[in-house]
Amino acid sequence: MDDLVLLHAFPLDARMWDVPGARTPSLRGSGEPDLTTVARGVLAGLDDLDQFVLGGCSMGGYVAMALLRIAPERVKGLVFVDTKHTADTEEAAANRHAMADRVEREGVGDWLADSMVPNLLGPDASADAEALTRAMILDQRAEDVAWWQRAMARRPDSTGVLESLDVPSLVLVGEHDQLTPPAVAAKLAVTLKHSTSERIEDAGHLPPVEQPAEFRARLERWRTQVGI
């Protein structure tokens, strides 16, 4: 799977992926918050690949959509995990800015993990999944968390970008996802021309963390079916 690029969720890192052989870059931004900056950074690390299968979970999906605006010809397949293609509502954007401001004031701490973990994981998540999720959150730099939130708050609607694509795509969503529930994933799937949409049972917003073996199996089966 050395042609598979997987982009992590917020506010996590590459440890969320347990997919041997996949490229899992750390997402970093600088300057004015804009996910296009992150997408360009991802592309800069893929000069040895003419084309690749691009996947992203949550924020990683938003970055994937930003990359598609820059270099759609580089992407031969897409994997969207618990993400959406629409822009934030005013309320959602305001909540992101509020968190960014608090992180800058107080730093990353238990308050952030305590507020996010229940929304990220399903009700039956294992202790190991919870421990890993908390560890990833607590390891992030405050400046990155604030930057990511502000960049996501200003991301545009990606409907037109996705409708113009002519590549196979896999849309996965956790059965118990509270942040981008199955109904949202269904809307994303119908926006794509050649999509396969599947629900992963006993998972919330982070199926690759909660159900890593099932996530790998779904991914490998889809790649075999579509021949990429």
From TrEMBL:
<protein>
    <recommendedName>
        <fullName>AB hydrolase-1 domain-containing protein</fullName>
    </recommendedName>
</protein>
<feature type="domain" description="AB hydrolase-1">
    <location>
        <begin position="4"/>
        <end position="217"/>
    </location>
</feature>
<dbReference type="InterPro" id="IPR000073">
    <property type="entry name" value="AB_hydrolase_1"/>
</dbReference>
<dbReference type="InterPro" id="IPR029058">
    <property type="entry name" value="AB_hydrolase_fold"/>
</dbReference>
<dbReference type="GO" id="GO:0003824">
    <property type="term" value="F:catalytic activity"/>
</dbReference>
<dbReference type="Pfam" id="PF12697">
    <property type="entry name" value="Abhydrolase_6"/>
</dbReference>
<dbReference type="InterPro" id="IPR050471">
    <property type="entry name" value="AB_hydrolase"/>
</dbReference>
